[in-house]
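job 3f2a | input accepted
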Amino acid sequence: MWTAVKLFLIAFFSLIILALAAGGAVFVYYAKDAPALTLDKLESKPSTKVYDSSEKVVATLGAEQRNLVKTDNIPVMLVNAVTSIEDHRFFNTRGIDPIRIAGAFVNNLKGGSLNGGSTLDMQLIKLSFFSTDESDQTLSVKIQEAWMALKLDQKWTKEQIFTAYVNKVNMANGYYGMGTASQAYYGKDLTQLSIAQLALLAGMPQAPNTYNPYTNPTSAKWRRDMVIRAMRRYDKITAEEEKKALATPIDDGLQPLKQSVTIPSYADNFLKQAIAQAKTLAGDDILTEGAKIYTTLDTTAQQNLYNIVNTGNYITYPDDTMQVASTVTDVKTGAVIAQIGGRNQPSNVTFGFNQAVQTDRDWGSTMKPIVDYGPAFENNIYTSTNNYVSDSPTTYPNGTPLKNWDNTYFGSMTVKSALALSRNIPAVKTLINVGLDNSSKFVNGLGITLDPLEYSNAISSNSKNGGASSEKMAAAYAAFSNGGIYTKPYYVSKVVFPDGRTVEYKPVRSRAMQASTAYIMTNILQSVLTLPLSESVGSYAAVPGLAAAGKTGTSNYTDSEMDQITEKYGSLPGMVSPDENFVGYTPQYSMAVWTGYSNRMTPIYGTSTQIATKVFSSMMTQLTPDPSSVATWTMPEGVSQEGTALVKTDSSGQTISQSSANGS
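job 3f2a | predicted structure (664 res):
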């Protein structure tokens, strides 16, 4: 009998030893394939946030919105709530809890899952290195989590591990981290929440969507009450506190749910450019490092521009497919304050197509101030607004026919009238006298590339290499307003990383022309806004009482294209063109507006030719509610008034003589 007992015990303990050995072998087999424990993966990064010029958040980037909390800002009651429901021996174990793991293993043998055996340490490992998918609910993954949790517990304190867990967990509705959820759901810090509210947050990570109080309040209450009872079971709260917490409505203190990941459609095009600049400035990792991107966006101006373009409250558009692209810059700083790349853009597309920065459309006669007349005054080809130029039949230097838009000729006329009335022949003659090299230098100084610059660019931005966009044109014209100083347009002022490292953008400025040239050009372009409507749509850009200047621009169809237009649409009244533009400025803002259709063979005609100027005046009205508060431009040295003309003068006050033609 005794011998049989001895044999049984030997066999029993041998089986136990074999089981332990086998279990150890399995543990080692799976643990060796565990990912390397890189501690930085355990630490959550805050969401990248984008700020406007007033340093208010206008967008959060990335799939997860997360605001981090520090250990000192985590209330003890939240610690009690989380540990009571998730791992009540958390502070007494070293990464794994053998009792819980054994229980989970037995459950798995019965056909259940391995859930329930994970400590908070292991849950943090899962959230950082694995997933909550069913494919990761396996024995091998569980062993790897346990092995990594053992190593983690040797490197971090329990406080560090708990803080990382609180900041890592999914809290539904696009929010990550309990601190984030506290602000989003209750508008308060964690330290200000009640026991019932903390219990709700503590219970959500197990199944965030299931226990979402906004979409599943019944399930959320069931889970919250489970947490409260667990807290009472482990003596973390009193019976009275338990009773009060259980009686609290599940929606107590909940705020209306806001969108978690915000990329507002009204600023989509601007933000696309801002993020591109921020990446260039501070590196591609800004979107994953929780950086703060401070932009030049004027949110009110951006919303106004969006509404002007996308509603019928300001302007009547001919249809829903006509497009508008526009950029507004601050004249003094050169910063882009608002931008829009199209009308009726898809609301479900983020960072979509932005026509405002494309150079594939023709800006027509808006090129005349920067290709022809600006360099003419800069190089003293013209020294008075009353210098004369002939509007008479001629050709391009290569013999190509040249004509005005109305196929008429005005004969000898002042430079001021020739530009204000947008006569093509005087513009080309002016460029011929300036010379292509001088003009190209002037244009390049305004941030525009036309390579190679040709005589056709006297009235067009079309170029083999380069071209113009609303961004480029707004910046170029801003130099006229700013005394000849050009600033490269920019969208970002600085990028701040979570560790405090700051990368600032330093605006790139240069003198593009003499102050006298800028002032004279402004004087001429002011007259565009005072012309009778019978002569120009430029007066639609005027805002009563506001000092403003600008230039209309119309592109042209070729003769063969016009034949196609006529065949499709019949004989259309008045000007017919693929692009209608306006570039204008005040002493404070510069704005370029392009209008047209994505298919350039859809023509603009009739009252649609007025839209670009009306967008400008509508926007300037919003930007400058009190026009009388804006002082007009001050005449600089090197300019004097002689009768009705402005003339360039030398240091002694004498009128500068005109230079001879410079050729090409």
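job 3f2a | The mean pLDDT is 88.
job 3f2a | closed
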